Amino acid sequence: MPNAQQAPLKIAVAGLGTVGAGVLKLLETQGSLIEQRCGRRIEVVAVSARSKGKDRGVALSRVQWFDDPVAMAAQSGADLVVELIGGSEGPARDTVATALETGRHVVTANKALLAIHGTEIAQKAEARGLAVAFEAAVAGGIPIIKGLREGLAANSVSEIHGILNGTCNYILTEMRTTGRDFADVLADAQDLGYAEADPSFDVDGVDAAHKLAILASVAFGTAVDFASVFIEGIRQVAAVDFDYADQLGFRIKLLGIARRTDAGIEQRVHPCMVPKTAPIASVDGVFNAVVAQADFADRVLFVGRGAGAGPTASAVVADLIDIARGRSTPIFGVSAGLLGAATPSPMEARRGAYYVRLMVKDRPGVIADIAAAMRDQGVSMEQFLQRGRSPDEGVPVVLTTHDTDEASMQRALATIAASDTVLEPPRMIRIEQF
Ligand SMILES: NC(=O)c1ccc[n+]([C@@H]2O[C@H](COP(=O)([O-])OP(=O)(O)OC[C@H]3O[C@@H](n4cnc5c(N)ncnc54)[C@H](OP(=O)(O)O)[C@@H]3O)[C@@H](O)[C@H]2O)c1
Question: What pLDDT shows up at residue 431?
Answer without folding.
Answer: 98
